[in-house]
Amino acid sequence: MSRKILLLPGDGIGPEIVAEAVKVIEALKTRHGLDVETEEAPIGGAGYDAAGHPLPEATLAKAREADAVLLGAVGGPQYDKLPRELRPERGLLGIRKSMGLFANLRPALLYPELAEASTLKREVVEGLDIMIVRELTGGIYFGEPRGIREREDGQREGFNTLVYSESEIERIARVAFDTAMKRGKRLCSVDKANVLEVSELWREVVERVGLDYPEVELSHMYVDNAAMQLVRAPKQFDVMVTTNMFGDILSDAASMLTGSIGMLPSASLNADGQGMYEPIHGSAPDIAGRGVANPLATILSVSMLLRHSLGEAALADRVDAAVGQVLKQGLRTADLAAAGAPAVSTREMGDAVVAAL
Amino acid sequence: MSRKILLLPGDGIGPEIVAEAVKVIEALKTRHGLDVETEEAPIGGAGYDAAGHPLPEATLAKAREADAVLLGAVGGPQYDKLPRELRPERGLLGIRKSMGLFANLRPALLYPELAEASTLKREVVEGLDIMIVRELTGGIYFGEPRGIREREDGQREGFNTLVYSESEIERIARVAFDTAMKRGKRLCSVDKANVLEVSELWREVVERVGLDYPEVELSHMYVDNAAMQLVRAPKQFDVMVTTNMFGDILSDAASMLTGSIGMLPSASLNADGQGMYEPIHGSAPDIAGRGVANPLATILSVSMLLRHSLGEAALADRVDAAVGQVLKQGLRTADLAAAGAPAVSTREMGDAVVAAL
Ligand SMILES: CC(C)[C@H](C(=O)O)[C@@H](O)C(=O)O
Ligand SMILES: CC(C)[C@H](C(=O)O)[C@@H](O)C(=O)O
């Protein structure tokens, strides 16, 4: 039985970039024996437009049945005035939580051909290859109680809860150690144990899990120092593991070190090996519909999907190689092109990858 | 009556760098009519060694009476095994909270003479001058309830509370807007309003305070994007205002953009105009006692102290100019010296600033 990929194009440039990723999937089907079926469903603003909710029930039902989900991006200014629970981000947070996608893998990889795009000096970032493992279904993103309440003195106060249980920490730590075993065998756990009790427990549990991975060199770093070290000497890191909120901040900083966030995919996995794959960049409403967006992060998300959810490592390697080849050929979308240099369109870039497969 | 400055040298390189700052204060007294008295007290590990607590009662009492406090740094490996409530950081957090030092001003300023020290390309950071206004006595650092508890299923969980009241947000917002009025009149408030209710209230209150400052251009940015923008195009920022935790992370990232955290001072102010001043770098136990630490961040903290707590703007300008002059003369401590270039000692640097006053 062929496996199912659910496509969630979403908003902004989402549909354009997912369309190019679909071309790659189709080429793998017709030319390289990949046996998958694809289906499409709305999410985010598109979900609200189609069904009055950023995560329509039908979309979630299809996602649960799929072997893997490929997401474009969500969000756009036309949805900014909606009540909180109907805004596009709610669709994203909702599908992560409902599918139990607790492990978010975010590579920050510098492509040698694109080293000049970084705002950092070449020697500081050349060869950069960090994998950030971010906890994605817990922490302050989902902790209860939360809200805005009136106090006795008549003033309002906002409150949120940061909470992690031992088992939540343990399972993300295992993913991180497993990831480190497949890479450079160095893991840096990032916390704020000098201030937060949650971090104290985090550190203790990560240490304990580490006993099962004697080959992995484990270190701990405070989050403020980690933010500094990413700027100062980012190549010191191999795998980093951290909470939902710290991971949100650090992975965005890390990806920007590469200078080309249009190139970076991500994977969000659950305990059953199901995964959702998406570029780390946003929906870029300012350039949506103009055919200039970079589809490579989405195409590389297909590669992660093949590797992590479908066990098709050889095909994943093929996609990675094709992307490397188009870069070597000098093809650049507008976000990557040097000032004044010619840029290819979203479609031309997608076609070039297909040709290189 | 002469005003009082309490000196808290603390741990590691703290005593060495504070000694140089004291030379500057003495020179201002004898040669430029500054009328202050200084006294010294232990804090951090030194507080624990002297009185069994990182914030001895006598130290706090003296701090409350002083017009301003000058802190070196706290922390060292010999205190790492102490119980949480006796560790050096507790002294720092304790004095911030007890004195109500809610407004932490952290400049990230690039000295033109030191532009090469940055890991970022010169054109990205040349002229960088950001002021981060960090809330310092609230948020998740101090929120209750907090702790590690056992759940019904026998598992433990760690929990912390992020909480801000309207008045807490309002007073830090006022400091930020006032700061912006004295600078480029642009304020960026950083939050995570797409996820956290606290941030929703934060944004609302900052907007409201902004009505009193029609000349200040106010913008809002999500914290993950702010971390990216600091790497991508840091010069877009003038003043940033944010919570305790986000400020901890972003101010460290911002300071590292300059490449010379040995140069950056900070001020922590309360509602009565009292302030504590300290370099943003740590106690650097690895180089403590060797006379190689850079005293300039502490000397520049004296300048902030003169300006913010003593109303001595002219003397503050004099200190700033003296620091600028020694840099122009080419004097560099080891942290700033180019590889292989000669470096001056902590004392030589202090003496040079005194001579340049
Ligand atoms: C859109 C937002 C809710 C989301 C997050 O904070 O997780 C995004 O920033 C991300 O990192 O995927
Ligand atoms: C030492 C630590 C508790 C402190 C903080 O987190 O506030 C430090 O990182 C700082 O920024 O002054």
TrEMBL record, chains A, B:
Keywords: Amino-acid biosynthesis, Branched-chain amino acid biosynthesis, Cytoplasm, Leucine biosynthesis, Magnesium, Manganese, Metal-binding, NAD, Oxidoreductase. It comes from Acidihalobacter aeolianus. The gene is leuB. It holds the Pfam family Iso_dh. The lineage of its organism: Bacteria, Pseudomonadati, Pseudomonadota, Gammaproteobacteria, Chromatiales. It is found in: Cytoplasm. The record marks Y141, K192 as: Important for catalysis. Mg(2+) binds at D224, D248, D252. This is 3-isopropylmalate dehydrogenase. Binds 1 Mg(2+) or Mn(2+) ion per subunit. Belongs to the isocitrate and isopropylmalate dehydrogenases family. LeuB type 1 subfamily. Its cofactor is Mg(2+); Mn(2+). It is an enzyme of class 1 (oxidoreductase). It catalyses: (2R,3S)-3-isopropylmalate + NAD(+) = 4-methyl-2-oxopentanoate + CO2 + NADH. NCBIfam families: leuB (TIGR00169). Residues 4-353 form the Isopropylmalate dehydrogenase-like domain. GO terms for cellular component: cytosol. One of its GO terms (molecular function) is magnesium ion binding. Pathway: Amino-acid biosynthesis; L-leucine biosynthesis; L-leucine from 3-methyl-2-oxobutanoate: step 3/4. Coiled coil: none annotated. Catalyzes the oxidation of 3-carboxy-2-hydroxy-4-methylpentanoate (3-isopropylmalate) to 3-carboxy-4-methyl-2-oxopentanoate. The product decarboxylates to 4-methyl-2 oxopentanoate. Substrate binds at R96, R106, R134, D224.
